[in-house]
Design a protein that fits this description.
Length: 420
């Protein structure tokens, strides 16, 4: 009896199982179809957003164009702290304001999309201020520093060791970052005159020997002051730095420090070790004197020293950003050796000190010609040439210098892909 009941129930169970399987398959199919359509929808949204037709990420600031590959040309006009939108309708003064008794009749308001009366001129956009070369360099510097270091380090937290290259003129509230090989001798003379240390009106009346001898500790360095004074000066003083094409400055450093016969110190300290390390079968006399360093040996020494990180580069060929730290110090003026006389005058005018000195302010201001630079770097291997540019590439970018044309030509000749 019991077995018959089980046999009768078994067909119903089989039918229920089939029904459940069928429903499960249908649910899986629906889920798969739903996922397919969901993926298609997500892909469509991504495409629309990336193509810019759906302005999900509208910028709050107008776009900026560039004057050349490194200099940032700031086109957005800043008015009262806001970016001027030249495409938006501009309000007309006194629009819709009732006139005072006896004054001129009211000027009708001009609304967006309406046509102004014939006798009324349409509103004109304020002209975009054209940046000077120095202002463009400052803008470029700020742009790159903001990109690399979005969180600004407060002046209270800037280490004293980062401020040793900055000279102080308290009288004119000036901070000047000194970089050897960039009109430094003449600028130290200018600071001696401005501070009243030397009673003169021409930098030519002060000898170079006195600058780094008799007046070596004048003016004071920013690192000599206490923290409160440093912060106040960094905040309120006019901050200036002068730079030069990095690879051109490197050749100048080689000629004045390793080739010049009068540079005995550099021969002994650097020349002897460079020749000993990089010259095959070097003569004992050359290793002892150190006065016959080849430029290719000098470049290889810098590349190896920088890559090993064992020692810091000497200040005469060290990178600008490692001496003046432009992403820690907000410089107000960036001058160049290529326009040093004009840029120096701009600084003196800003300080109301231009009448205290006679021109020329800088006596040695002739950059080396590209033909000479090309000849010097032609003796350097393509690999070392590519590496030396990479070492100074940050200076090229931060201070708005173009990569030299001769560098491209020499690397191409050496079958080295210039990727940096």
């Amino acid at each position: 009896m019991e077995s018959k009941r089980i046999e009768k129930c078994s067909p119903y169970k089989r039918l229920l199982r089939r029904l459940l399987r069928s429903m499960l398959r249908s649910m899986v199919t629906v889920a798969k179809v739903t996922l397919v359509f969901l993926n298609i929808w997500v892909l469509a949204v991504v495409l629309v957003v990336s193509l810019g037709h759906w302005r999900v990420f509208d910028a709050t600031e107008t776009y900026r164009t560039y004057d050349h590959p490194h200099l940032v040309g700031v086109r957005g006009l800043k008015t009262d702290g806001r970016s001027a939108n030249l495409s938006a309708p501009q309000p007309v003064p006194n629009a819709g304001v009732p006139p005072d008794a006896g004054n001129n009749p009211p000027v009708p308001a001009v609304h967006a999309g309406s046509v102004p009366p014939v006798d009324q001129k349409p509103p004109t956009a304020a002209p975009v201020k054209k940046l000077t070369a120095a202002e463009a360099r400052v803008a470029n510097l700020q742009q790159w520093c903001k990109q690399q270091h979005p969180h600004k380090v407060p002046y209270q937290q800037v280490a004293t060791s980062k401020l040793t290259s900055i000279l102080v003129d308290e009288k004119h509230k000036l901070l000047f970052c000194q970089i050897p090989g960039v009109a430094l001798n003449d600028w130290r003379k200018i600071l001696l005159i401005l501070s009243g240390t030397v009673n003169a009106t021409s930098t030519g009346s002060i000898s170079g020997g006195d600058v780094f001898g008799k007046y070596a500790k004048i003016p004071k360095r920013l690192s000599d002051y206490d923290e409160k004074q440093r912060v106040e000066m960094l905040t309120k003083f006019y901050k200036v730095v002068f730079v030069r094409d990095p690879l051109e400055r490197l050749v100048n450093a080689y000629k004045t420090k390793l080739v010049a016969k009068s540079s005995k110190y550099f021969h002994k300290v650097f020349g002897t070790q460079i020749i000993t390390k990089y010259r095959v079968n070097a003569k004992d006399k050359d290793k002892k004197d150190g006065s016959d360093v080849k430029f290719s040996e000098f470049v290889k020494y810098i590349v190896d020293s920088e890559h090993s990180g064992s020692i810091s580069l000497n200040e005469h060929w060290q990178q600008f950003y490692k001496q003046c730290h432009p992403c820690l110090v907000d410089y107000n003026f960036v001058g160049t050796y290529e326009d040093v006389e004009k840029d120096t005058e701009q600084v003196l005018v800003k300080l109301n000190a231009n009448k205290k000195l006679k021109k020329p302010y800088v006596w040695d201001s002739k950059p080396l010609q590209e033909k000479e630079l090309s000849k010097m770097y032609a003796d350097v291997s393509a690999t070392d040439l590519n590496n030396i540019y990479k070492i100074f590439s940050a200076d090229y970018t931060l201070f708005g210098y173009k990569c030299p044309e001769y560098l491209h030509s020499l690397l191409k000749r050496g079958n080295v892909f210039h990727d940096y």
